[in-house]
Fold these 2 entries.
Entry 1:
Amino acid sequence: WERGFSFWGAVAYTLASLFAEPMSRPHVLRRPPFPRVPFWGGLIAFVCLALFFQFVPLDLSVAQYFYQQPLPWPGDHWAWTLAFYHYGEAPAALLGLLGGLAFAASFRGPRYRSWRGPGLYLFVLFVLGLGLLINGLSKGLAGRPRPIETLGFGGLWDYQGPLKWGIPGRGFSFLSGHSASVWYFFGLCWLRPKGQRAWAFAAVLALGVAMAFVRVSQGAHWLSDTVLGGCVVFSLSAAATTNEARLSSRGKPSSPFSPTICALTISKIANWSYPALRLGWTLSSKLGNKLRRKY
């Protein structure tokens, strides 16, 4: 892995070293219990924080602080924040791609079968979590204007709290896609051995705070957009580990559910027509059935 992606330098080296170790684990012999504590903990944190941001004007206070600087929205003028903005989503996309490639390579033979569960887990978490849930459904349906689009901050629309349903398409602030690209690495943390998860979660949390600062200082998102996205991805990544372990132990896909969902997600993001959506559903279902019969 380290030799194959040397062109990305230090970033690829780090990703490869983290990614390769979980792939080399032996098969899981039994399905672990559902992670109720992290799953429900993330959802409860989401509800509590959403209520807090809805009734306490912290979003407005933080946005006002950055808007009243000598240069409004200073995050648009700092080199490091611009670097985070332009390149911050690339590591998550690379890791999701590696997961898809690892899942495909796992069908080459028994030697690579241990890649199947972690590979599909990382790929589907990227497609469903970042693609469908964050950038597809929440952004497209919430209709929450960004700070720069809001009255009092240079925009034309009224402020909308995180729990207020807006007009779909009028604003794409809820939730933050860039922050979710960092929170996505919670999934990699769950694949680490238990003794190494603490420092991994701490590293992801530090990077997530940095990305949240970047997006808020640029006027692109409210603080709640970045924090609540972390709660969603944390719960989703924890819940998906059960399916990852089951797939690793069985060594084969149990249904065409995953490729079908991937096709639906791509169709949603690309705004494909109904015939294309139906074709994607059909092809992905046939692919899933073929893999199930063969392996």
Entry 2:
Amino acid sequence: TSFPAHRAQVKTLAFDPKRPILASGGYDENIILWDISNPQEVTRAGPFLQGHASFVKSLAYHPNGNILASASDDKTILFWDVNNPEKTSTIGPRYREHLAAINSIAFHPDGNQLASASNDNNVLLWNYHPGNHSLTLDKTLKGHTGFVTALTYNTDGSVLASTGFDSSFILWDTNTGEPVGLPLHAHTNPINSIAFGKIKSSNGSSQEYWLSGSSDRTVIQWNLSTYQPVASRTEAPSGNPEIEVSSGQFTAKVDGQQIRLNKSTLTGHTGTINSLSFSPQEIDGRLLLASGSD
């Protein structure tokens, strides 16, 4: 099912962690909340959320699901009260500390910290105050020498990973703001996306890893104990191979205008696919959303 409502490219998607609501943001400067309780009859859950003055590049729900954060090429972060999607409104001021477009934001798993990445080559760590839904700047993380494109926390939030146009992958201690080791290099072009995961072995133990996807058309899995690639780079055949997501036994990867879902091929898009996301495991983890330039 496709949901034509944005008037330009859809750039970012975020699932509400508690309810069957999907948020989408696009180059039309709008954010839309969708009711996906019935995937065959998706409807808008409320009015357009308008507040940014340029492309909406990233969305992130607070872990409690009541607050949605948005970031834009207008260099600002906004908060939205989405507890009632039909009466969504902004909360507090515009937060503008970055000197250039913001590409990615992420909430710490405990909900008390927000990270933002920008074309000013910096990552900012913010303290989030749930009482009045406000931010105060805590730390500026400097280490990238190009645009910072993507962010993600590990499961317990002790480590933040950032990637960028400098083809580097940096791990940060979220308490001190200091790098964890040296920047990691293996890609030969800008890194556009990053994801954290765990592999369970037969004896019940789990091993953490990161996946990074690049414009060099490869995905690399990194061993967090050695800070080295687990194996040689995996090259995808065409399209936007850097976009890959997993949920339980399902793995989805972009291949041109198609999506490879395990051994199946999903078709429907007529333009570049920009984003993939599975619904949260708390809901069922079986719904895959894709957005694109069409």
